[in-house]
Amino acid sequence: MPRIVIPDDEPAVMLPSMAYKKLSGFDVRAYSSRPAGPDELIERIRDAEIVINIRATSAFTADVMGSSSKLRLISIWGTGTDHLDLPAANTKGIRVTNTPGVSATAVAEHTLGLMFTVAKNMVCVDQRVRQGDWPRSMVMQLRGKTLGLIGTGAIGREVAKLAQGIGMRVIAWTFHPSGDTAQWVSFEDVFRQSDVVSVHVRQSSETFHMISREHFELMKPGGIFINTARGAIVKEADLLDALRNGRIAGAGLDVFENEPLRPGSPFYSLPNVVLTPHAAGITPEATEAGLALAIENVFSFLAGHPMNVVV
């Protein structure tokens, strides 16, 4: 029976889940803390044939995988693979799977929530009301406005549906446009035409810092920027400048280049930004579905017909 290792279940999601019971009877070693670094990760997975990876803070570098001679499968909970050296995994014959689509509804709802919160200035208004003020000022109405999507995978398509449901016009750019999800436009035109720009591409070498100063300068002065994808897709220093200088009206951010945000982060002092802690996909429904799929990926691999394969 192959040894399955869960090296990084902190905070615990897999161990208390209903999905974990599916592994009953298997040789499973699960850790309820994150490895302190690559050496500890290597020690935890040294004898593993299969790893179920929970946290992206566990970096599966070429050295880590090279030190795990028995490793045949890394089943990732989630869709992101930026913490894993995919070419090295491919070279070493290690199959990598993920769990696409399971959190699409949750992340799309969170995206819409950030749009409303920024557009209506809800955080600042709430704070002022609690202080005894009664601020009544003009805010953005989203119906009739244009939402521009960068990426139309499972999450982007769900965001498009929700936005269309509240009467927004939806335009989009994606690597491989097809279907009628949105009106397809150029990458630059998403920024030029949109009242709200929302990011939904994966982080990769192609998307690293793909959004920078030149794109914020194309946006309308009243424009809003939303990111629930990955922080490093955006050149964060350029976004901060655009927000400080009033080049754009505001932003709703669930992801950052460095997580968690460090003490003294410049984002803390900006009143036109709404911050959430990379939590868009965390709902009971999405969590259970994703954990169950990560385990099903293990079962399908063992049965000889792997699914949701990245490499």
How would you describe this structure to a colleague?
With 311 residues, the protein is of the alpha/beta class. The chain has 2 domains: 3-102 and 284-302, NAD(P)-binding Rossmann-like Domain (Rossmann fold); 104-275, Rossmann fold. It is 31% helix and 15% strand. It has 10 helices and 12 strands. The chain has a 7-stranded parallel sheet, with helices on both faces. Strand 9, helix 8 and strand 10 form a beta-alpha-beta unit. Helix 4 (104-119) packs across helix 6. The protein is elongated, with a radius of gyration of 21 Å. The two termini are 24 Å apart. The model has no long low-confidence stretch (mean pLDDT 97).
Unreliable residue runs: none
The CATH homologous superfamily of the largest domain corresponds to NAD(P)-binding Rossmann-like Domain
Largest sheet: 7 strands, parallel
Helix content: 25-40%
Global mean pLDDT: 97
User: What's the end-to-end separation, in Å?
Assistant: 24 Å
H-E order: EEHEHEHEHHEHEEHEHEHEEH
Regarding CATH, which class of the largest domain? Alpha Beta
Strand arrangement across the biggest beta sheet? 8-7-6-9-10-11-12
Give Rg in angstroms: 21 Å
CATH architecture type of the largest domain:
3-Layer(aba) Sandwich
**What structural category characterises the helix and strand content?**
alpha/beta
Q: How many domains is the backbone divided into?
A: 2
Could you say which overall geometry the principal axes of the C-alpha atoms support? elongated
Q: Quick one: how many beta strands?
A: 12
How much of the polypeptide forms β-strand, as a percent range? 5-15%
Named CATH topology of the largest domain: Rossmann fold
Number of helices: 10
